Amino acid sequence: MKLAKMTKDELELLSHKDITYYILEEEGKKNTADLFKQIVALLDLPQSTFEEKIGDYYTLLTTDKRFVMLEDGNWDLRSRHTSDKVVKVELDDDDEDDLDEEKDDMVPDEIEEDNYDDGDTDASDYDDGTDDDLKDLVVVDEEDLEEN
Length: 148
Prior knowledge:
By secondary structure, the chain is mainly α. It has helices at about 10-15, 15-25, 30-40, 45-65, 95-105, 130-135, 140-145; strands at about 65-70, 75.
């Protein structure tokens, strides 16, 4: 739909983002200020609206996935700027062999399985080692430490 053929009432029903979409579709890329000035003019808004709302308008553009900011600072429709560049890495035979070896190194030779008991354990099955570890232990009172 052409913006020039729309009435003011029809334009007022559209969001600023939708009007921006139509402008970019018809006229091509533009910078933020030019886009918003055109919207203000189309809607017959006062100049103070431009000054007060330009920041909000910029935020609208950055959050809408239909628009993309180009390197030159202009906005355009994302649909016109598809990314069709694919990086293709060609490996020679030696590189492929190295990659295969790296993959083999990452996989363990044997996978150990956890062996769990069936739950039938007694306290006598555990050796906490307290008998051997504590045989040389000496208990000293704080008073004895202060005297020395």
